[in-house]
Design goal:
Blueprint: E1 2-7, H1 11-21, E2 27-33, H2 36-45, E3 50-54, H3 62-72, E4 77-82, H4 86-95, E5 100-103, H5 108-119, H6 127-138, H7 151-161, H8 166-173, H9 177-191, H10 196-205
Parallel strand pairs: 1-2, 1-3, 3-4, 4-5
Helix pairs in contact: 4-6, 7-9, 7-10, 8-9
Length: 210
C-alpha cells in the first residue's frame, strides 16, 4: 500500500485529490496539510511514501519546503503539484530533489500513475517537462539571464513580473521589505536591467508570468 500525504492550502482541492486517490486499491491517503508547518509536523509524525506537495503555500514556498523534506527524509518521494506550466518552474524543482512535477490540469489517471511511479523510486516526467529538460541540457553558456538566477531571485522576478508591490512580495516570501529591496538590486545587476518596468517586460517576453 502506497501511503500518501496531500498538501494544499485549499480544502476543496485536498478533498478532490483524496477522492481520486482513495478510489485506488493500492493507495491510501494517510495525512493532509494546508501549510508549511503542518506539512513538516505530519511528515515527522506519520510514516508515508509520497507527499503530493502544492507549489504555492502560505508561509514558506513549496521550493523551500521541498528542500527541507529532502534533507530530513531523503528516501521520501515528493511530487509537486502546481497551477504553473512546466516550463516556468519544473526544472528548478527537479534540481531541488522533487520526484516529479505536475500541473493541476493533469488527468486523474495520470496523477495516479505518477504517484505509483515515484513511490517505486522513479521520476515522473511529462512530455512537456521532458522537452524542457532537453532544452536545459542543450542550452549554451549564452543562456537567458533568468536561467542563472538563484531560486529566491527567480521568485522575485516572477512576482515583479506579475505586478506585485514590494510589500506584497515581502509578505508572500515572509521577509522584510528591506530584504526585498536588496534582492531587487542584486536582480537588476544580474539581469543587466535598470528598472522594474524592464523586469516586467522581460518576464512577459520570456513567458515567466501568465
Amino acid at each position: 500500500m502506497t501511503r500518501v500525504m496531500i498538501v494544499d492550502d485549499h480544502a476543496v482541492v485536498r478533498e478532490g485529490l483524496k477522492m481520486i486517490l482513495e478510489g485506488q486499491e493500492d493507495i491510501s491517503v494517510v495525512a493532509e496539510a494546508g501549510d508549511d508547518a503542518g506539512t513538516l509536523t505530519r511528515a515527522r509524525e506519520q510514516p508515508m511514501d509520497v507527499i503530493l506537495l502544492d507549489v504555492s503555500l502560505p508561509g514558506r514556498s513549496g521550493l523551500e519546503i521541498l528542500k527541507q523534506l529532502r534533507y530530513q527524509y531523503p528516501d521520501l518521494a515528493v511530487l509537486m503539484l502546481s497551477i504553473h506550466p512546466e516550463d516556468q518552474y519544473a526544472v528548478r524543482f527537479l534540481r531541488a530533489g522533487a520526484s516529479g512535477y505536475m500541473t493541476k490540469e493533469t488527468a486523474p489517471a495520470e496523477l495516479v500513475a505518477a504517484i505509483r511511479k515515484v513511490a517505486n523510486g522513479g521520476r515522473y516526467v511529462s512530455q512537456v517537462l521532458a522537452e524542457c529538460l532537453v532544452e536545459e541540457l542543450e542550452r549554451p553558456d549564452t543562456a537567458e539571464p533568468h536561467t542563472r538566477l538563484s531560486d529566491r531571485e527567480y521568485q522575485l522576478l516572477v512576482r515583479i513580473g506579475q505586478g506585485l508591490k514590494p510589500a506584497q512580495i515581502a509578505e508572500e516570501l515572509h521577509v522584510s521589505t528591506k530584504t526585498i529591496s536588496t534582492y531587487r538590486s542584486r536582480l537588476l545587476e544580474k539581469m543587466g536591467l535598470s528598472s522594474n518596468a524592464e523586469l516586467v517586460q522581460y518576464a512577459v517576453r520570456q513567458g515567466l508570468v501568465d
